[in-house]
Amino acid sequence: MIPCPSCDQSISVTVSQAGAQVDCPNCQKSIRIPNLGDLRRLAAAETGEIHGNSAALPARKSQESTTARRLIFAGLMGIAGVAAIVGLFCLVRFLSIQVPATTEIHIAEIDSMYHQVSAAQLIREWQQMEKFGLDATAPYPYKKLAIEKSLWQRNGLISLAVLMVCVGAGVVLARSDARSVKSNKSAERITS
Question: What is the spatial distance between Cα 168 and Cα 80, in angstroms, rounded to a whole number?
């Protein structure tokens, strides 16, 4: 039995009609009968056996698989959306932080300042350096800003990477889902 593509009327066919054209008794349209291999698969699907195994997965399992893929796809796109928002926030923070100086500018300022002080002040500062050492207790404010700015940049790049991975995985999943749906529809059409 094969369905008419025009009116879905079931048409009884024999093995000897494989590959031939027949007219539908209901709508009178010409129908091509599948070749012998396809007819054998149809017969095996009707009896529920293909090579000793059960027939193709039941429609319910196929539908559950498709639903699971779609849920995973939605989850991936949700993560990608969050990553995009976080990435944009990090980009805005990165661009909004202005570092007023660099180490080179700071050294040039100190050098110009040392040229303006008296010899006695330089000696006192030298003595303080000898007594307390040169180790700074905390980074200079411009260094703190530079570190904060680089951290926002790093976080933005991580968010971008997460976004790209999620979108890539979503595309792969969507393509496999489309192939699965297409093969399920063709399998249903053959078994009907």
Answer: 10
Q: DSSP secondary structure string, 74-116?
A: HHHHHHHHHHHHHHHHHHHHHHH------HHHHHHHHHHHHHH
| Within a domain: 125 | no
Do you know the residue count of the chain?
Answer: 192
E strands of the chain, at which residues? 2-3, 10-11, 21-23, 30-32, 49-50, 53-54
**Is residue 8 domain-shared with residue 47, that is, in the same domain?**
yes
Q: What is the DSSP letter of 56?
A: S
Question: Do 67 and 32 belong to one domain?
Answer: no
Is residue 163 domain-resident?
A: yes
If asked whether residues 80 and 32 sit together in one domain, one would say no
Q: Is residue 16 part of a domain?
A: yes
pLDDT in tens, 22-64: 888 888 888 888 777 776 676 666 655 444 444 444 555 566 7
Residue among 89, 67, 69, 65 nearest 77 (CA): 69
